[in-house]
Design a protein that fits this description.
By secondary structure, the protein is α/β, with parallel strands linked by helices. The protein has helices spanning 4-12, 94-99, 107-117, 139-143, 158-167, 183-189, 193-200, and strands at 15-18, 37-42, 50-54, 62-64, 85-92, 104-105, 125-129, 155-156, 172-175, 204-207, 220-225, 234-236, 238-243. Helix 5 (158-167) packs parallel to helix 7.
Length: 244
């Protein structure tokens, strides 16, 4: 049996990739939400430096709790702590997205991934790599609006989410864009139906991930941390990948 000390020593030797964007007042964000505000409350002239930050929970790389969309869903502080450190699977569809910004991850993509890397284990975290994060920090490029004012952005298909949740029993998913749904799916439905479905299942998601291009498809682990807010719907998060 491996002791915690032995596991710690192993992880200290692992490569760590920060999957989190640095955020400021100009960071891309959902336009209906206010940008981050920061001010000095005290400076070193006062003897110590204290800053005040004002931001919405869904800002930058962030975690969404089920209550973000679903009445009666779990708050952030109700999520199981053991679901914040998980095996990480990265499905790379960056080439498909480069050809079609409206690409949706499908069941066929999951099955093709599993054909190559093996079946996704239960209680894992599955990330959709689109390389959309490389558009950061441009709000214009991140939203990628067409002439109708609609986003042209990649996302998860309903069928893929249903398959991962029901058939593979994943603990959480994540992506590089602002939304779970593709921009054109939102334009068609007038709502984030896939995001609602995902959160309705009682699991969380991480949005606006970064640097998934530095993480292998399998074999790494993801760790998510954030402030211990009481009854929060979401929060900016620090997300790390540990790689052998």
């Amino acid at each position: 049996m491996v002791t915690l000390r032995e596991a710690f020593e192993r992880f200290k030797k692992a490569k760590v990739v920060d999957l989190t964007h640095s955020i400021n007042e100009n960071s891309p964000h959902f336009p209906a939400l206010p940008p981050l505000e920061k001010k000095d409350v005290f400076t070193l002239k006062d003897g110590f430096h204290v800053q005040q930050f004002s931001f919405v929970g869904q800002y930058g790389t962030h975690i969404d709790a089920p209550i973000h969309f679903v009445a009666g869903g779990k708050w952030l502080d109700e999520l199981p702590l053991d679901n914040l450190f998980l095996p990480l699977y990265v499905i790379d569809l960056s080439q498909e997205v480069a050809k079609n910004p409206n690409y949706e991850l499908k069941i066929a993509d999951i099955l093709a991934f599993e054909e190559k890397y093996g079946e996704i284990e239960p209680n894992a975290f599955v990330a959709f790599r689109s390389d959309w994060s490389k558009r950061w920090p441009s709000q214009e490029q991140f939203r990628n609006l067409n002439s109708k004012g609609e986003q042209e952005t990649p996302g998860w298909s309903f069928e893929a989410l249903e398959f991962l949740i029901k058939e593979r029993q994943v603990a959480a998913v994540g992506h590089e864009t602002l939304d779970t749904d593709s921009g054109q799916t939102v334009a068609k439905n007038g709502a984030l139906l896939n995001e609602y479905y995902l959160l309705e299942q009682g699991i969380y998601q991480i949005e606006v991930l970064a640097h998934l291009d530095q993480v292998p498809s399998t074999g790494s682990f993801i760790h998510i941390s954030y402030p211990h807010f009481e009854r929060a719907t979401g929060s900016p998060a620090r997300v790390l990948a540990y790689i052998n």
